[in-house]
Design goal:
Blueprint lengths: L2 H44 L5 H57 L6 H32 L8 E4 H18 L3 E7 L5 E4 L1 H17 L5 E9 L4 E8 L6 H5 L10 H7 L5 H11 L3 E7 L3 E9 L37 E5 L3 H13 L3 E5 L2 H10 L4 E5 L7 H10 L6 E5 L4 H10 L3 E4 L4 H11 L8 H34 L3 H17 L3 H15 L3 H12 L10
Parallel strand pairs: 2-4, 8-9, 8-10, 10-11, 11-12
Antiparallel strand pairs: 1-3, 4-5, 5-7, 6-7
Length: 561
Amino acid sequence: MSPTKHLSADASNLVAMLERRLNVERAERRRLQQKLAAIDMQAAGSGSVGSRGPAERLEELIAQRTRALSLARDEAVAASRFKSSFLANMSHEIRTPLTSIIGFAELLQDPQVPQAEKADAAKTIVRNGRHLLEVVNDILDMSKIESNQLSLEKIEVGLPKLLADIEALASSRAQEKSLCFTVAHHLPLPPVLMTDPVRLKQILLNFCSNAIKFTANGEVRLEVRFDRARDALVFQVVDSGIGMSGQELARLYRPFVQADVSTTRKYGGTGLGLYISKQLADMLGGQIEVWSAPGKGSRFSLSVPVGTQPRESEMLTCDRDFDDFQRPAFQITAVDVPNLNGRVLVAEDGADNQRLLGCYLRAAGVEFDVVGNGRLAVEHALAHEYALVLMDIQMPVMDGVAATEMLRRSSYRGPIVAVTANVMQDDVALYRKSGCTDVLAKPIDRTRFYEVLRQFVDAPRSHPQAAEAAYQRELAGLTADFERGLPLTFAAIDSAILSSDWAAVRSLLHALKGTAGSYGLEGLSKTAAEAEHSLSIGRTAEAARLCSRLCAYRPTGADAI
């Protein structure tokens, strides 16, 4: 039975049970009313007037029980309706990005599709994949909160870096809608605070994402100030969007629902973000406040304890204190690939994941073997020398937990890292109890993946000459392929400029800047960066001039524009 049918069946059973109880109460009430009528008739016949007091109290008691049961039934019906709407919304939120991912992935396989369209298809797949991951993360976070499994850490967090990370992530989303996103520092500010950086960023990014989502034009601003009286940092996200009414604000933090049904249809979203943010804020010892009015925008405020006592001399008193942490957005996803020397066993039954892990390992110079189930993983691990075993959990024949336990019982002492999408607190505890050294979550974060590799796989003293030559040949081939595709990129930029689609121009320049830099074409990357910056400050004529220089680029063996 599907989750939707299961939930609907549970709700229907609950409503039916309440209906049965209500019918019993009604029948009992009719019986008592008949008895009371007989008592009244008897009292009337005898001239007695004092016997009506107990009867009236009994009548009132029956009425109260009837009203309570009716209210319980209405609440059950409402809960069923909310959850049914939530599941329908989840189906839409999951199926919509999946449709784009599958459709554009099929497009990439078509040899007749131009290279420029394939590049756009790849970006679309990544964008929709990240959206789908956000939906799944919201559902998992809510599940952890409801089951009291969400744990927080408390570490020292640098305020400038925290704000720089949020600005870089939120700015890229704002640029897609041609909105201005700014961060305002109300100085002085403490340099650090003691909190959970992941969950704090999650709350603030939720505020920023909502502000961007519900703002068609204008700006979104993140303000931060220090409240000395409460020893708290106050973050405010202000937008010029659609705003909310008092009725919509009243149900703002309820799970499963957004401010309005039409909001879900028009803007999308799970309806869980603010509910989760409210729970996280409470766990951080913080407080959320909201001001909003229809057509006038909204202001979401989060105050969290600083948790430290900074000296006056340590306070941040100048905007230049934040400059060292500014960085181009494309560098956030840059991955430092190590150069390693060793052999790894990959136990994974999914062909796509096998190829992906193989690609990551080859990039680091690591040799590897691949097996498709836990039993083969045990056989290979015991028969060969591996620096590391990457163990998928859900596999046929024998799952990863059983395979790990069998290896440990066989006195296998090598590191085993679980690779799984199930990373609830109880799941991770089970993997470690079975003998896993560490856990990698799916989808795999490449930076985290290489951090784990560095722990267990040796780094070579020098890169072997043959491997270096092979690497240079592969790089030269990839660079040549990239340069052959440049005319299509330049044509797309020209077309976007002719139609004054500056958002598309900026997106193309942003991608070109990062990719050209990755291939060592520094002149091309620098010019693209300059053109992108000109667009960001509204100098379209200057950007168009720089784009014409870009389009004049010809591969000559030396990168110069």
